[in-house]
């Protein structure tokens, strides 16, 4: 049910995209190297919108996730404080243009979706086949262009738009 009292079918209800980690697997094995997972029990994580499988365990609903479905670790209630995992990048989205080149004002629905923003946080990089971590070429403060339909979008406590994308979805570093 919505705040206004409207009953929505389960297909139209928005599900939470985060929660507390209650258990983790053993990690990944690369030859004789063991790589620990990037999350630990007790941490709050944010995950992709359509990720995971819901299961009922001891009368409580849980979501079973792969590490790749987890966007990052969130220590506060504000998405701007997210610490991305692995090859994920947190980007503060640039404001959409409010008027056309000819001076016509645009409504919010008519504005073109921005694909440019400033990197607010970046993950530590990917783990290669040999078990070593490869750092990202993207740094905090970089102005980047990313794929239009990539990533997971979020709104911060102050109303700013953020998006978390994989580093491979960053098309260019503009500065």
UniProtKB/TrEMBL annotation:
Question: Per its UniProt record, what Gene3D superfamilies does this chain match?
Answer: GroES chaperonin
Q: Which Pfam families match?
A: Cpn10
Q: What family is it from?
A: Belongs to the GroES chaperonin family.
Question: Native species of this protein?
Answer: Ceratopteris richardii (Triangle waterfern)
Per UniProt, which keywords does this protein have? Answer: Chaperone
Q: Which SUPFAM superfamilies match?
A: GroES-like
According to its record, what are the GO cellular component terms?
chloroplast; mitochondrion
Q: Which domain of life is it from?
A: Eukaryota
Designated name of the protein: 20 kDa chaperonin, chloroplastic
Q: Does the keyword Chaperone apply?
A: yes
Give the NCBIfam families listed for this entry: PRK00364.2-2 (NF001531)
Task: Give the GO molecular function terms.
Answer: ATP binding; metal ion binding; protein folding chaperone; protein-folding chaperone binding; unfolded protein binding
């Amino acid at each position: 049910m919505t705040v206004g009292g409207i009953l929505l079918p389960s297909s139209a209800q928005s599900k939470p995209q985060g929660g507390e980690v209650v258990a983790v697997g053993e990690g990944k094995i690369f030859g004789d190297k063991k790589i620990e997972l990037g999350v630990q029990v007790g941490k709050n994580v944010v995950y992709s919108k359509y990720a995971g499988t819901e299961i009922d365990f001891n009368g409580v609903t849980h979501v079973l996730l792969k590490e790749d479905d987890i966007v990052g670790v969130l220590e506060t209630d504000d998405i701007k404080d997210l610490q991305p995992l692995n090859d994920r990048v947190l980007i503060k989205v640039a404001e959409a243009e409010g008027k056309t080149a000819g001076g016509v004002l645009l409504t919010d629905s008519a504005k073109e979706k921005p694909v440019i923003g400033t990197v607010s946080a970046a993950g530590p990089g990917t783990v290669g086949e040999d078990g070593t971590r490869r750092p990202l070429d993207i740094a905090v403060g970089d102005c980047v262009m990313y794929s239009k339909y990539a990533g997971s979008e979020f709104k911060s406590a102050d109303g700013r738009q953020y998006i978390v994308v994989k580093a491979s979805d960053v098309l260019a570093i503009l500065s």
